[in-house]
Amino acid sequence: MPQTPDPQTSRLDAQFAFLNEADRLKSVLRATTLCDGSRRENSGEHSWHLALYAMVLADQAPPDVSIDRVIRMLILHDLVEIDVGDVPIHSANGAAHASLETQAAEQRAADRIFGLLPADLAHSFRALWDEFEAAETPDAVFAKSLDRVQPVLANLLSGGGTWTTYSVTWDQLESRVGNKIARGAPRIWDWVKAQVRPFFGG
Amino acid sequence: MPQTPDPQTSRLDAQFAFLNEADRLKSVLRATTLCDGSRRENSGEHSWHLALYAMVLADQAPPDVSIDRVIRMLILHDLVEIDVGDVPIHSANGAAHASLETQAAEQRAADRIFGLLPADLAHSFRALWDEFEAAETPDAVFAKSLDRVQPVLANLLSGGGTWTTYSVTWDQLESRVGNKIARGAPRIWDWVKAQVRPFFGG
Ligand SMILES: [Ca+2]
Predict the structure, then answer these.
(1) The HD domain covers which part of the protein (chains A, B) (predicted)?
(2) Is the pLDDT of residue B99 over 90?
(3) Which has more pLDDT, A104 or A93?
């Protein structure tokens, strides 16, 4: 007689199937390098750094932001890149990042990857990722601001990074990046702007 | 007349000094490889993976555990390795990991690295790291269990990993790793044990 699978065991099977698949995010390379310029950054370590950004810069968030929810969002936010890869914000003259094609591919990736989880977790993780992508709630707006700040520091410290790769101008940086940082974290953008402006001859 | 520094600006100076220094954790290599065996894992991406473990395996924690505190602990737990490096658990026949010398070096590293932060954050981050290291509170015990589980999966999926490097026996795995996982997450260890036992000829 076939054994009935223990529900506890099948749940752990699904939990570890997801965790093992998630390991692949460490092999997705971004356009940005580490701060020392030694190699390209991967999306796993980028996600860790952003979670740390949220812990450190919590006092810059509006009072209605839950930093613990922001941290969870940032831990999940790039998982779809396992299937889709990272789309650099300055590539295709700034147009590739938010293309409808990219968005559809990311939706399919989210279906597959979060679908590995037990149903309750698949639902709650997907809801958190959808919220991040929509960039409307205070938590998502702050999380998106941090996601835009961190590569600016990496470019600055590594001597230009993707600004050089994609011949980015100050106006492009301000419209593609600065305005989005300022939306969720205006004082952070003021501080970062003062650091970065001289690089662009300002 | 010299300008008085804006306290808001000096605070952000310190916050970013810490975040930029933290970037170096991405260059600290562990003995363990990625699950596909393609390269050694670094401590930054490892910390991200553990935070995801906490989110996914939350239902395995005792009811008095705060998963959000566990996530924060895991994000911080390896930062001292920027100065000290990773000490593989199976190296020096299992004796190097908890040596007094290693512990003293980690304390000095924590002084320096958390000391980059504004005083309030330096204090709260250090307290969370001290709590993790002491492994006494329910949050720290669960966090430590996850930190022990993840390399087991990486070794299993990559075909042996550090078990092969350090000629680890089943009894050594059970005493150095299994007992610590079982302390915080007994059902996870039961599940993992069933996956791993055949590798050791069980
Ligand atoms: Ca990102």
Answers:
(1) 22-189
(2) no
(3) A104
* Chain B residue with Cα closest to A28: B45
What is the model's pLDDT at position A51?
99
Domain-by-domain residue ranges, chain B? Answer: 9-197
- As a whole-number percent, the residues of chain A with pLDDT over 90 amount to 86
- Give the burial class of A193: count Cβ atoms within 10 A of its Cβ; 0-12 exposed, 13-18 middle, 19 or more buried: middle
For residue A121, list chain B residues with Cβ-Cβ distance below 8 A: 56
Residue B65, token pair as written in the block: 């555990």
Which residues in B lie closer than 8 A to residue A150 (C-beta atoms)? 19
CB contact under 8 A, B19 and A45: no
* Contact residues for B162 (Cβ-Cβ < 8 A; gap 6+): B31, B32, B88, B89, B90, B151, B155, B168
Q: Do B49 and A23 touch (CB under 8 A)?
A: yes
CB pair distance less than 8 Å for A75 and B16: no
pLDDT at A4: 66
Q: Give me the residues of B, 85-144, that contact A with CB < 8 A.
A: 117, 121, 125
Fold of A10-28+37-200: Hypothetical protein af1432 (1.10.3210)
Q: Closest to B56 (Cβ–Cβ): which among A18, A45, A56?
A: A18
Q: Do A36 and B23 touch (CB under 8 A)?
A: yes
Q: What is the pLDDT of residues A177-192, one digit of tens each?
A: 999 999 999 999 999 9
Q: Which residues surround ligand 1, an ion (CB under 5 A)?
A: A 78, 147
Q: What is the arithmetic mean of pLDDT over A116-143?
A: 98
pLDDT level of residue B126 (50, 70, 90 thresholds): very high
Neighbours of A51 (CB within 10 A): 28
What's chain A's average pLDDT?
Answer: 94
Question: For domain B9-197, is the CATH number 3.40.50.10860?
Answer: no
How buried is A72 (Cβ within 10 angstroms: 0-12 exposed, 13-18 middle, 19+ buried)? buried
- Complex ipTM, two decimals? 0.95
pLDDT of residue B2: 54
Distance A148 CA to ligand 1 centre (A): 8
Interface check for B18 against chain A (CB to CB < 8 A): the answer is yes
For residue A195, report the distance from its CA to the centre of ligand 1, in Å: 22
What region, left, alpha or beta, does residue A201 occupy, with left being phi > 0 and alpha being psi -120 to 50 degrees?
A: left
For the residues B145-162, what does the mean pLDDT come to? 96
Q: Which helix (H) or strand (E) holds B33?
A: strand B29-33
Using a CB-CB cut-off of 8 Å, the residues of chain A touching B72 are: 55, 71
DSSP-derived 3-state class of residue A135? coil
